């Protein structure tokens, strides 16, 4: 029973990432803040959003995000503000245009290229079948007739 309780507490840990002191009184602004923070990467964590992270910098970013929303910024203005300071790395899903388009397309293109090179290599290593000589052809005919 204690182990089950421990597992449940550990699984619920990300829920406690946003501290009650960070939450806004206005539920609409708080919902916007949560939605934005779910799409922003913690600069020190491994692919974890600032909404889930317990890192001090994530706390600071959540507070900053909420301050910007209270000041009247739109969602896009808040995201642009953070991207200007941290770069596109802060976005969990970077844009697929410009130089990023090359990065998005590079993986599938390289995979297809590797498959093509592998296929060509295997085809070249497979020896071509030599045609049967007259003696071999006669032997096959004899075996098939018997």
UniProtKB/TrEMBL annotation:
Residues annotated as signal peptide: 1-17
Any one Gene Ontology molecular-function term assigned to this protein's record: metal ion binding
Annotated Pfam families: CcmH
GO cellular component, one term: plasma membrane
CcmH/CycL/Ccl2/NrfF N-terminal domain segment(s): 5-144
Parts of the chain that traverse the membrane: 101-122
Keywords for this protein: Cytochrome c-type biogenesis, Heme, Iron, Membrane, Metal-binding, Signal, Transmembrane, Transmembrane helix
Gene Ontology BP annotations: cytochrome complex assembly
CDD domains, per database record: CcmH_N
Similarity section: Belongs to the CcmH/CycL/Ccl2/NrfF family.
Function: Possible subunit of a heme lyase.
Protein name per the record: Cytochrome c-type biogenesis protein
Source organism (scientific name): Loktanella atrilutea
